[in-house]
Each structure stands twice: as structure tokens, then as C-alpha cells.
Amino acid sequence: MDGVLIPPLNFSMAAPGIYRSGYPNSMNHAFMKKLQLKTILYLCPEDYSEANTAWCRAHNVQIVQCGILPNKEPFQFIPEDVVADALRVLLDCRNHPILMHCNSGKHRSGVVIGTLRKMQGWSLTSIFDEYRRFAGSKVRILDQQFIELFRIESVTYDKEYAPRWLR
Amino acid sequence: MDGVLIPPLNFSMAAPGIYRSGYPNSMNHAFMKKLQLKTILYLCPEDYSEANTAWCRAHNVQIVQCGILPNKEPFQFIPEDVVADALRVLLDCRNHPILMHCNSGKHRSGVVIGTLRKMQGWSLTSIFDEYRRFAGSKVRILDQQFIELFRIESVTYDKEYAPRWLR
Fold first, then answer.
1. What was the ipTM of the complex prediction?
2. Domains of chain A
3. CB B37 within 8 A of CB B44
4. Interchain pair B7, A122: CB under 8 A
5. Do B12 and A7 touch (CB under 8 A)?
6. Pair A143, A102: CB distance under 8 Å
7. Distance between CA atoms of residues B70 and B78, nearest Å
């Protein structure tokens, strides 16, 4: 179908200026162009795909990488400081509109959005409900535990450039 | 917990200026205040709750009602013209920010957002994926069929006030 738009897997708008999704591929580029992105925040430690790197260069989109290894029992835990880094990038309006993504758009993205909701003052019930909406049957208790225990005081960000909805 | 914010069930941002959710109650009012809403679009035919009506009056939020009876086999079908009315309200920036809601935030809201995605040019696969994210185990085939067969040409709206992301 000519001209049909295909958002990346698990695409959604999280807040004004902030989008989340799974890993985009070239089939998603026409859709992404509509978002008029300024920034892509990439949450995996692996090198970014050549197709996306080239697309970003051609469309003047900066790529910021905060490489997070996902929670995996029993010994691999998401590092709190890298999540705080990711939040600092998300909460800077100069980077908006921004698309944050990991691989599936479920776990790492879900954790970062969960901690963002905590900073917004959402109840844990609401945060977990949103997390589950994207994780579906792949919910990870360790992710939810991370969100619950995350200390929002550890996030330093520039208040001057913070989105109005956070203030 | 004092000051904790509780979004309505199935709350989400659908696009710049447009929010969707289940039926808000008074526990959600503090959260809703943060959205600085101009309009609530209520998708059920029943009278609106007194608590929400009073809250809207106090916060200068206009209430628009497009009463839709949900799809129910074998003989009750969502009317195409009322969905077109709802889209006309959603696609008028003068009503933004707008919160659209039904009862559970699954079916009627899912159908209206699905038809909105069709107007945006999304693939049906992506539209149904989003529909399912909110409907969970309560997916209705008739809703998906409605979205597939919906004629976007039947929607008339004022181009001058349409959101930029639709143009």
C-alpha cells in the first residue's frame, strides 16, 4: 500500500514532546518523519543500526545513547545512574520532540517511562498499569521493583529547560 | 498518600493535544487539573456524572457529548455518523487539550482512536495493535471491523483548525 504509515512497534506518545517505541527499522522512517523529531534516545548498549544512523543524519536528528542492559535474574540489574542519565535527556525541552526506544519497547523503555511517571507523582498502581500495557505477557517483576525503589532525588536536570508539565 | 496523582483508567496521550481514558472519577481530578484541559469529549449516551460536571464547571472545561452505544453482537452497531461527529470535535485545535473518554477506555475510545489513526494513514496492523493494547483480553472483532470498514471520507472537519500533525 503506497503511502501507508507504519509506526515502530509499541509506539506511543508518553507526554508532550516525548514518544516511546520499539526499535525502528526503515519501514518506519516515513512515519518518523511526520514526528519532526529533534532527538532519538537509544537505550541499548549495542551500536546503532546503520539504516537509522543514516536516516538521522539526513533528517538532522541527533542520536543520544544511554546503553542499558535489561534486568535479568539473578544477577543482571538495570543501573540506576544510566536511567537517571536517560531521564536528564528526556527532560530537556531542547531535545524535543524526542523518540526514546529500546528493542521491543517493553522493558527498558517501560522502566524509564515508569521512573518518569514517578517524577510526575503518579501512583504506583497507575505506573504499573501503564508498564503492563506495553509489556503484555512479558511483564518483569524486577522492572517493577526497579521503578518502585528508584530514588527520584538521584535525577539532576536543568529546571530552566524542563517541560512545563513537570514543573 | 498525599499529593499522589491518579490518572483515569487506561489513560494515555493519543497525539499532541489529545488524551484518551476510561471514565474519570473524583480521585482523578487532581491529575486532570495538570492537563489544563479545555474540553472533555464524553462518548456515552448516559447523563454525565455530577462530580465531573461540577469539576468541569469549576475549571472552565467544556463538556461535549457524542453518545455512542458500543458494538454488541448480533444487532447493536456503533453508528458511523456519531463517530464522525466525535472526530470532528477531536480534530478542532480550538478544543485542545481535550480528554476523550468512554467507560472503560477500551472499546468506544479504541474505535474513535482507531478511525483517527486511519485518517493519519496508519497501517491496519498498527491500528489494531494499539487497539489491543488498551482492550487487552476484551478485544472485540466488531470494533476492529468497524475501524476497517470506516470511510474516512465521511468525516468533514474544518481544515483551518485541524492539528498540524494531520495536515
1. 0.94
2. 12-150 (3.90.190.10)
3. no
4. yes
5. no
6. no
7. 6
